[in-house]
Structures are given as structure tokens and as C-alpha cells.
Design goal:
By secondary structure, this protein is mainly α. It has seven helices and no strands. It has one domain. Helices cover 73% and strands 0% of the residues.
């Protein structure tokens, strides 16, 4: 039985990185310019939180670090800040959701929204500590609420995709 599971795991190990790439490309094509309350959606963060919800804190932290580092390569923010924040959010979300009873259908989407809001606020805090004041000039609470609302909408389809992609 374990040999069958090992083959299945190796055969589906490409799915999560492929999902991340597809979500990233589709979000760049379809959601570019979408802003709600000053915040833009980050569907790749929803994938990270989905991994944390479904697999736990350690895989969530690893997914957050890898996805955050890939974002850090392309944006003009302090290098590594997104990776650090998303790693912490992935770990914290996985830890928090492990402690909850998962019988309610609404817990994962709400967890995505709350984790996304926390990511925005942690990023602003990290930028302030690193002296990148230009990243903290907007009203971060309204940006966090806007991102949380957008991610609440994106949570259901992306969580289904992460369930499919997770080995």
C-alpha cells in the first residue's frame, strides 16, 4: 500500500508548483488593475494560506517562503520581506486552523481573509522597520480590509484547486 501511495505522491508532486504558476499568470492577466479600498489582490497568497489550512503549519511556511521569494524577485520592495511575511502567515494560519474544529464550511474562507489582512499589516510593519516609508503611506487598515474581502471571494475556487494539487 505504501508503494502505491509513494508513486501517487511522486506523480502529483508537480501539481502544486504548477498551480502556483497558473494562479500567478492568470492573476497577472485578469486582476491587473483591480483595486478595492486601496488594496490589490494577491491570489498567490491565497494559495499559500490554502496549503497552510489543508496541510498544516510547516508546509504552509515552506509554501509561503517559496511563493514570497518568487514575488520578491519581481517587485521593488525590500528583498525577502514578502518571503518572510508570507512564511509567517503560512505558519500562523496552519497553526491556528489546526486548533479549530473544521466542521464548518465557512472557516477556511474566513481564515483566508483574516490571514490576508494579517499579511498586509505585517508587510507594512516590516517595511516600516526596514525604513521603506514609501510602502507605509497608505491607510493600511483599509487596504487590509480590501485585500481580505477580495481574498474571501477568491478563497473558494483557489482552495478547491489547492485540494486537487496537494500531494
Amino acid at each position: 500500500m505504501s508503494a502505491v501511495r509513494s508513486v501517487r505522491t511522486r506523480a502529483s508532486s508537480w501539481r502544486l508548483p504548477a498551480l502556483g504558476l497558473v494562479v500567478w499568470l492568470v492573476s497577472d492577466a485578469l486582476l491587473d488593475g483591480v483595486v478595492v479600498l486601496g488594496g490589490a489582490p494577491e491570489p498567490l497568497l491565497v494559495v499559500v494560506v490554502g496549503v497552510a489550512i489543508l496541510a498544516g503549519p510547516e508546509p504552509g511556511a515552506v509554501a509561503g517562503f517559496v511563493a514570497g521569494l518568487s514575488v520578491d524577485l519581481l517587485v521593488l520592495t525590500p528583498f525577502g520581506l514578502t518571503a518572510l511575511v508570507w512564511c509567517l502567515v503560512g505558519w500562523g494560519t496552519g497553526l491556528a486552523v489546526d486548533r479549530l474544529v473544521r466542521r464548518s464550511w465557512w472557516i477556511p474562507p474566513v481564515a483566508v481573509a483574516v490571514a490576508s489582512m494579517a499579511a498586509v499589516l505585517l508587510f507594512a510593519l516590516g517595511a516600516a522597520v526596514l525604513g521603506a516609508a514609501h510602502l507605509t503611506t497608505l491607510d493600511r487598515m483599509s487596504v487590509a480590509v480590501g485585500v481580505g474581502l477580495m481574498h474571501l471571494v477568491l478563497a473558494v475556487p483557489i482552495l478547491h484547486a489547492v485540494r486537487w494539487a496537494r500531494p
